[in-house]
């Protein structure tokens, strides 16, 4: 079942986080921009209010939260009511897909990645942006998970775990970047996007569809 209750009820609090933590948000946005090709036909899965999609130039996507969809539509984004595990797109019809801070909310990550594989064109890409569960921020999120209005039923992932799942679902990882060094609240400038992981709490993985897989 889609985890939408908190997002439908607390959309203002959701957007306010990005205002309060502006430089952390801009650091994350910058890291995604580093690996996002400037091509048409890109979707965001779990697009939320469009807080990332709008500045990234992504014009369509999906989200199961009605309140979030309405907010994204106000930014001129075409948003469909759907979940990652059942995407409303034809086979091999999408150039690329982006999932930013949304993989922790999917019910079945294998099915979600299988669906992305299905809708991507040959050599299409999947970009994941997430808080690594083994990072300093990830450990804090896990510690206070039960108290969070948004993360209390989330499932956090480590970078190496996602590498393994991506490989099993037909993707080849081609790039990994990290940012957010230190506490989120202490970020007072745009931090660099650095190759690799383990030091930064926000990780971006870019993977390509391996056309050798048999659906």
SSE blueprint:
Elements: H1 5-9, H2 11-20, H3 22-35, E1 42-45, H4 53-56, E2 60-62, H5 66-73, E3 78-80, E4 94-100, H6 109-119, E5 120-131, H7 136-143, H8 159-168, E6 171-179, E7 194-195, E8 202-209
Parallel strand pairs: 1-2, 1-4, 2-3, 4-5
Antiparallel strand pairs: 5-8, 6-7, 6-8
**Could you say which structural class the secondary elements and strand pairing correspond to?**
alpha/beta
By CATH reckoning, the class would read Alpha Beta
Unreliable spans? none
- β content, as a range? 15-25%
Mean pLDDT: 92
**Biggest beta-sheet profile:** 8 strands, mixed
User: What is the annotated CATH architecture?
Assistant: 3-Layer(aba) Sandwich
CATH homologous superfamily grouping: Vaccinia Virus protein VP39
Number of strands: 8
In DSSP terms (H or I, runs of 4 or more residues), the helix count works out at 8
* Shape field: globular
Radius of gyration: 16 Å
Strand order across the biggest sheet? 3-2-1-4-5-8-6-7
Number of domains: 1
What is the straight-line distance between the termini? Answer: 25 Å
Could you say what the CATH topology is called? Rossmann fold
Tell me the series of helices and strands, N- to C-terminal: HHHEHEHEEHEHHEEE
The residue fraction in helices comes out at 25-40%
């Amino acid at each position: 079942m889609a985890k939408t209750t908190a997002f439908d009820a607390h959309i203002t609090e959701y957007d306010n986080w990005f205002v309060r933590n502006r430089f952390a948000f801009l650091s994350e946005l910058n890291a995604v921009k580093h690996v996002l090709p400037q091509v048409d036909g890109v979707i965001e899965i779990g697009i939320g209010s469009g807080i990332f999609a709008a500045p990234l130039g992504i014009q369509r996507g999906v989200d199961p939260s009605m309140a979030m969809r309405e907010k994204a539509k106000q930014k001129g984004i075409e948003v469909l009511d759907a979940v990652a595990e059942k995407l409303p797109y034809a086979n091999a019809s999408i150039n690329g897909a982006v999932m930013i801070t949304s993989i922790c909310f999917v019910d079945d990550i294998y099915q979600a990645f299988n669906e992305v594989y299905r809708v991507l064109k040959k050599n299409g890409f999947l970009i994941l942006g997430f808080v690594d569960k083994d990072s300093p921020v990830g450990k804090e999120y896990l510690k206070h998970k039960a108290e969070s209005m948004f993360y209390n039923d989330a499932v956090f992932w480590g970078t190496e775990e996602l590498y393994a799942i991506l490989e099993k679902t037909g993707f080849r990882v081609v790039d990994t970047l990290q940012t957010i060094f230190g506490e989120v609240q202490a970020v007072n400038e745009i931090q660099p996007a650095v190759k690799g992981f383990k030091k930064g709490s926000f990780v971006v993985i870019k993977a390509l569809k391996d056309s050798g897989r048999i659906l």
